[in-house]
Specification:
By secondary structure, the chain is an alpha+beta fold. The protein has two domains: about 5-50 and about 160-205; about 50-145, no CATH class. The chain has five helices and ten strands, in the order ααβββββαβββββαα. A hairpin with a 4-residue loop joins strand 3 and strand 4 (about 85-90). The model has no long low-confidence stretch (mean pLDDT about 95).
């Protein structure tokens, strides 16, 4: 569903006229802001299938710091792999990395560990790896990548639309103070129902992530 479709879905439910562009009026712009607020909340509520992607890094000899290009500090790494040598990369702490690189001569070889190390000047997430690569290795990061705010009328929403629409209505109803029949708390309850149903539907694609194992 496009940004304009989302805004018009909200406007109709609030008994307002539809618009031909999100920027048509001050009110439609505000609705667009609430749609993006709702989008952010829904995106953060679950690791949606639609936001799953793989980011790839190719190492160079003697370089241990790399950028996950396009991540824009909105990434959650689910699993990381050394695709060249077919093993999982293990997360280690910054203190562990400091010990390896600052307090001793670092080993060189095929990467086995990674850690996050801030963002670069473009806002993308950086990682350090260890051992320091001695050749080119392909590293794969299976990740959740949240999207930028919707801005153009034609921008598409990737996650389920109904939780976003109804949460935006709830936020707008709370701001406006009256909705002609349904209270803001009731709207929030409706939005929560849509969200829980959408999560349940998406979660069946990844049942291993909702099962707790005890040692």
């Amino acid at each position: 569903m496009t940004y304009l479709n989302l805004v018009n879905n909200v406007l109709r439910r609030m008994r307002e006229d539809e618009v031909t562009t999100v920027n048509q009026s001050t009110y439609s712009k505000m609705v667009g802001d609430f749609v993006n607020d709702a989008k952010k909340l829904v995106e953060d509520a679950w690791d949606w299938s639609a936001l799953r992607t793989t980011m790839t890094v190719t190492t160079s000899a003697d370089v241990f710091n790399y950028v996950l290009v396009g991540s824009q500090n909105k990434i959650k790494v689910l699993h990381a792999y050394n695709d060249t040598d077919n093993w999982e990369l293990q997360y280690q702490t910054p203190i562990w990395f400091d010990d390896k690189y600052m307090k001793q001569d670092p080993q060189s070889g095929s990467p086995q560990y990674y850690v996050f190390n801030g963002i670069n000047t473009n806002g993308d997430t950086q990682i350090d790896i260890y051992p320091k690569p001695d050749a080119a290795y392909i590293l794969r990061f299976n990740s959740i990548l949240r999207n930028d705010d919707l801005s153009l009328d034609t921008d598409d929403l990737l996650i389920p639309s109904q939780p976003v629409i109804h949460l935006a209505i709830a936020l707008l109803a709370r701001e406006r103070g009256e909705t002609g029949g349904t209270s803001a708390p009731e709207y929030f309850g409706i939005a929560d129902k849509y969200l829980s149903d959408a999560i349940a539907l998406d979660a069946q694609k990844h049942p291993e992530e909702t099962i707790w194992y005890t040692p």
